[in-house]
Write the structure tokens for this entry.
Amino acid sequence: MNVIEINGLTKFYGKARGIEDVTFSVKEGEIFGFIGPNGAGKSTTIRTLLSLIYPTGGSAAIFGKDIIKDAREIKKDVGYLPSEVFYYDNMKVKDLLNYSASFYNKDCSTRIKELADRLDLDLNKKIDDLSFGNKKKVGIVQGLLHSPKLIILDEPTSGLDPLMQQTFFDLLKEENEKGVTILFSSHILSEVQRLCDRVAIIKDGKIVKVEKISTLRENNYKKFHIETKTPIEQSRFNFEGIKDLETDGHSIRFLFKGDLNPIMSRIAELDIANLWIEEPDLEEIFMHYYEKEEQGHEHV
Amino acid sequence: MNMYRHELRDILKPTMIWTFSIMAITIFFFSMYPTFSKEAESLRRMLEGFPQAILEALNFDINAFTSILGFYSYIFVYISLAGAIQAMILGTGIISREIREKTADFLLTKPVTRKAIMTSKLLAALTAIIITNIGYVSAAYLMAAIVESEGFQQGVFFLISLSLLFIQLIFLAIGLITAVMVSRLKSVLPVSLGTVFGFFVINMFAKSIGDDKMGYFTPFYYFDSMYVLQHKAYDPELMMLTIILIIMMVTGSYVMYAKKDIHTI
């Protein structure tokens, strides 16, 4: 079952593009990454899903309900954490969280305490007196206190130290194990790599690709770096599937895609001093991907 | 109910400050009445030297000046000015604050309709205005009873007093619709003061040149205390206009707020 279904969603701000013809869906129980550079349309998509802004075209459904017509119904089971959190400054953390809880018809007090303990958040402080990181924690508790079935995160990790980030990711994984679906937007690829099952790549307001993280990596090049004791001739590596070949005396680097066996036997013939075979990280994959896209456009 | 409580708590302090200030002005004005009425004759002679247009702009009716109600209808102009400013600030502030203080994301991602949000805010603002009016009318009545020992027509007194409520309701509605229409209202105070003083000046101008049509463009004209004093009633036509305007502006605010895009910061 699809928890989120987006169909040709379009938003123009006057003539300025927000997003154009965005289509993808998120399955139940999935951690779905939504990735792209700043200004690509991630927040526009998310804010449209939450009916903070209204689309100029297309449609979307959450839990099978229309995002505009059934916005109120939908939000009962959605938790949202924006990238920048701002709350009523003159309130205490406790009061704000209780106010937040009062919108849901359930008792959230134990959950609030539990989450605050986990995140090491002082409930009796005034929001005004909190650091940015601590405000962010209030945001996390606020987004999770009603045990939502869908969690929407818009660049959530800024302002959290690495330790807190880990706790936060652990929390998300625990929720996910309970069956909660997560939509996670970010421009930091390593975060997405760590957490997500599938990912939608957005660029200039359009979805470029929706893919499993694992597939993205499988279909891709491996990075080879070999150091030899004797100098190597470049011609030894005239292979189908080799790219970006660089030799520098005793060292050779290239990218390879294809059957690994012939290349391994060729390497075995060498007098090897050292050898690295690496998966490119997502960063490199995406950069590659974006470059390809751009070249493609230029040819048109 | 939770939103109403939250909103009310938020506006309670400024409301109290406004209420006490308006009460203080009222008490101050009324305490001057004994002096005025004693010196009425010399005041009359002095005012005769003034051009008629200025007297009308300032709402001076020399003959009415010697009675407590005449005096009241004169000072009420300035009380209504204060009340209008309070109501307009309240109306614009209660909507634009969420966006200015960036809390809109919090509220609008909760399972509530925008209609419910608007209703809670409106009810909280109405409560604030009612508090102010109760405080004001009590202060005014008490002072009038103290300074005028011979008694006065209570019906007219309350009609004039009650026009504060109507003027505040109009300006509350003007504030609401302004805040909803402007996508990012940064400063409530200059907008509110500008609008209220603008209408106030139009009213003075309309009265000094005696142009009734011009009066339709300013809410201050709808509840002219001189008219109430003379007719012992509100102008029925203008009363209708008031009600229609309030309903239109409030409905418009609901409709536009429901469609409004809430942008990121």
About this structure: Chain B touches chain A at residues 2, 6, 10, 101-106, 108-113, 259, 261-265 (CB under 8 Å). Chain B has 13 helices and no strands.
